[in-house]
Design a protein that fits this description.
Elements (H helix, E strand, L loop, with lengths): L3 H19 L3 H13 L3 H13 L7 H13 L3 H13 L7 H13 L3 H13 L7 H10 L7
Helix pairs in contact: 1-2, 2-3, 3-4, 4-5, 5-6, 6-7, 7-8
Length: about 150
């Protein structure tokens, strides 16, 4: 339901919604981003997930937070993949599942997210959700820019 005339308006709503989110104007962000999130926009879904998870601009809603985070992650948004990995890692908004957490951290790490690389390295160090693999942990830490101490 988006013809060419609507595209500019949607882009403006997204930009305004993101600006409101960044300015911590969560009620405004919610009203601007919710329709876009429902329409499948990953950037809007990611921010709506954060607000729903933390009760910002709306009542906290774990199910909604998971639904939006998962949708944005499936769409390939690296930050959402990282966020979904943490949901699984911590058992917040989702059943704790270290293997699923590792899968999503891997996807985000493959997109170059440093935090995902280091978290995945930690999972390999501890053998959480993945095989314990100190060499893979070292490789990921180096890839993330950490040099070995010592």
């Amino acid at each position: 339901m988006s013809d060419r005339d609507d595209t500019h308006g949607l882009d403006m709503d997204l930009a305004s919604g993101i600006a409101a989110f960044e300015a911590r104007q969560f009620t405004s962000a919610t009203s601007l981003l919710a329709p876009l999130a429902e329409g499948g926009n990953p950037e809007a879904q990611y921010r709506m997930a954060i607000m729903a998870q933390n009760g910002l601009g709306m009542a906290a809603n774990s199910a909604l937070a998971y639904r939006y985070m998962h949708a944005a992650a499936e769409a390939g948004l690296g930050l959402a993949q990282h966020g979904l990995g943490f949901m699984y890692l911590q058992g917040e908004c989702a059943e704790q599942d270290h293997a699923e957490a590792a899968r999503w951290f891997r996807k985000a790490a493959d997109q170059g997210l440093i935090g995902s690389m280091t978290t995945l390295a930690m999972l390999h160090e501890e053998g959480l959700g993945v095989d314990k693999d100190p060499e893979e942990a070292k490789r990921l830490y180096r890839l993330a820019g950490f040099e070995e101490g010592g």
